[in-house]
Amino acid sequence: MPSLATTPTPRDFRIGWSDTHSDHSKVAKSSKAKVVILGDSIAYGLTRYPEVWYRYFAKKSLNLGIPGDHTQNVLWRLANISLPDTLDYAIVVVGTNNLGHDSNKNIAEAILLVADLVLKKHPKIKVIISGLLPRDNSTSRKRKDIK
Question: Which of 35, 78, 95, 115 has its CA 20 to 30 A from that of 85?
Fold first, then answer.
């Protein structure tokens, strides 16, 4: 039986999540981006640092991060969006929100499924999986689980 982490699932549409996904879909249709960043708030968070975002990423990248997303939400969004044909790279930054809900094995499988889905849509793209990045303070349970 597949885990929740590996089952494409939309989030609650009442919280504006579907509006953000719709906005991402519109931008993706006209984008000439070379890089797509897929994930959760860590991916989205790159735009919180405009001096870094605009200097290194904005001209070539499409940021499809949505805060709070789990792997299953990214899988659903990826299955329900058309990515630009101009992409050379996809960066996958997701899984931290699954901690405490799913096993490490299921989280890893789900992250690999995201990468596989990208490759099915764009077989020549290079996929970079970041792994789970540190979060919270150094003594938090989630930070320890990431290690």
Answer: 95
